Amino acid sequence: MASDGVRTQESEYETCLTLTRREPQKAFESALAWRDSGGGFPARHCVALALVAMKKYDHAAMTLEKLAEDMQSSGSELLVPVLTQAANVWLLGENYGRAEAMATAGLTIDPENIDLLIDRSRIYAKVGEYQKAFDDLDVALKLDPARSDALTFRAAAWRHLGDNARALEDVELALSLNPDLPDALIERGILYQAAGKPDLARDDWLRVLELATNTAAGDEARRHLEALDVNKDK
């Protein structure tokens, strides 16, 4: 019977996740009912994910924080992933202090968690702590030198720390590993523009629009292209 119960809970969780993607408000209501009828951690997690899908980031992050507290008390092996999600949702909600606290809590438990090191570096970058961002990325890249996302973010950190030559080395390496990585193309475009090579910058940003036009990266590439055109007309 226990195994049937586990299967039923897993099935309920999958159903909840699917509904979250399609109709988050209904998923939220369904997850609350499931939680109140004894759904435990999976139900509470789905409540939080539905809130994220509804863009209620503060409420979602607080839900995940409370879930993490209770998971820690129960010794759950899923504690670090939930702390990671809480950090990222606080980041979406632009509460960088809480985001950093959640990421640091996760890294205290799992100091070689590469994804979490990268996440915390992004949080540090948001508040202009580029040396701390660089330090986390440096650790991540010692653990896995082929992480193109970490190389791209470290390139940005190098640039903000005033070393565009090192920044270009990192971003070129990132693009050798993943030639169509939008963030890396944006970063290289910024470096090309700073080096007085606007045509190369334009090529990189136009490539981002081909790859990811309806994304945050596409929006950023569009802003850079518009600024380039304004400067060109002056």
What does this structure look like?
With 234 residues, the protein is mostly helical. It is built from 13 helices and no strands. The chain is globular, with a radius of gyration of 21 Å. The chain starts with a helix and ends with a helix.
What is the mean pLDDT? 93
In terms of per-residue confidence, which ranges show pLDDT below 50 for 5 or more consecutive residues?
Answer: none
Helical amount: over 70%
Number of helices: 13
What is the H/E string?
A: HHHHHHHHHHHHH
Q: Work out the strand percent.
A: under 5%
Any idea what the radius of gyration is?
21 Å
Give a short summary of the structure:
This protein has 234 residues and is mainly α. It has helices at 2-22, 24-36, 40-53, 57-74, 79-92, 96-109, 114-126, 130-143, 148-160, 164-177, 182-194, 198-212, 216-233. Helix 6 (96-109) runs antiparallel to helix 7 and helix 11 (182-194) runs antiparallel to helix 12.
Q: What keywords describe this structure?
A:
13 helices, 234 residues, 0% strand, mainly alpha
